[in-house]
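User:
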Amino acid sequence: MLGKFYAKWMYAWETALTTRDTNRIVRPLEWGEDWLEEFVASAGLSEADSEFERMVRLNEAIVGRCEEFFGYETPTDYRLELRYPQLFPTNVRPETLEQEAEYIRQEETGEGVRAEFLRFTSPLRTRYPENDIVNARWYPAPAHKQPGRPKQAIIVMPQWNADAFSHNALCTLFNRFGISALRLSKPYHDIRRPAELERSDYAVSSNIGRTIAACRQAVIDIRCCIDWLQQQGYEQFGVLGTSLGSCYAFIAAAFDPRLQVCAFNHASTWFGDVVWTGQSTRHIRAAFEQEELTQADVRKVFTSISPMSYMDRFAAHRKQVLVIHATYDLTFIREFSLDVLKNFDRLGIDYVSKVLPCGHYTTGETPYKYMDGWFLGSFVYNAFKRLREEKTEVNQPVSSRVGELR
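Assistant: Predicted structure:
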């Protein structure tokens, strides 16, 4: 009885949090082939095919050429900028707008504290110049006195529609562990968001091609951040992604073996299933339903940005992995997260599974945010510690190792 009451209360709370924003817009379905032009020619598309059939074949072609799709040339214009942080909220609730106004006031009066941001031009260009300048708040850890200790860093990608302060506390926590952090703004988020938008709608929308291109850009941006970190002398790398950020992080790790520590805060196998069933994407589903698409159809048109398409590739290189899911999640429903774990077991991936007794949005509420922070923090600490110890073992003189074995 108590369990049923708790579940009912949690679902009601989760629903309230996902319906309090009034600026979600139902936009018409757009196939968006023009966002994927360089892959259209080789996809074997026919003018006789329906737009749906063309998009399915285009996804298949992208998966077949995935190395090229997620490949890139390292940027040459990396730079660090000092500026006053701003909130860049995605809702119009009065309390949020007041908070944003306060940050702006602090900047205008000089009362705020400037922060350091990594900026560079994304190798993948879009139609929005502001989106193409990558932005990552830089949290460098203090230098260690321990000789030979490898420099370690993690890239942090918050959830869809996150404001510019989301997950910053995690970055300062990682600094206490001696791990530097880059808090990466996803495509179309915070300072990268086009002025015409209130929300980060272009990252996930009923424009299928643009949504796919946004994922491609995010994955490439993560890999470019690793390139910069290597240029600064960092040797060991991780990535932490929440919700949509976990999808981006997973695909980046599948294509970049340098990412040896992976924390996925809410995860799913198929991108389209989340779009179809999630409370936070119901306005996108409405656009698909207007064109009589089904859940199976939506899964097919987003195959190229689904973690399931790259599961074998992800498993090909050894990693330490954390997967967190929530029992009462109405956005990444539980069965999708369990499917991730099932596939990890099938492929022999080394992972840790943690379960939150809440939902997707309530993960950010007290007390669950502290539980989530504990799971993420303790895993990242231990995973990077293990990497350091393994490197020390490898670098230890053979004679010393033989002596220990005796």
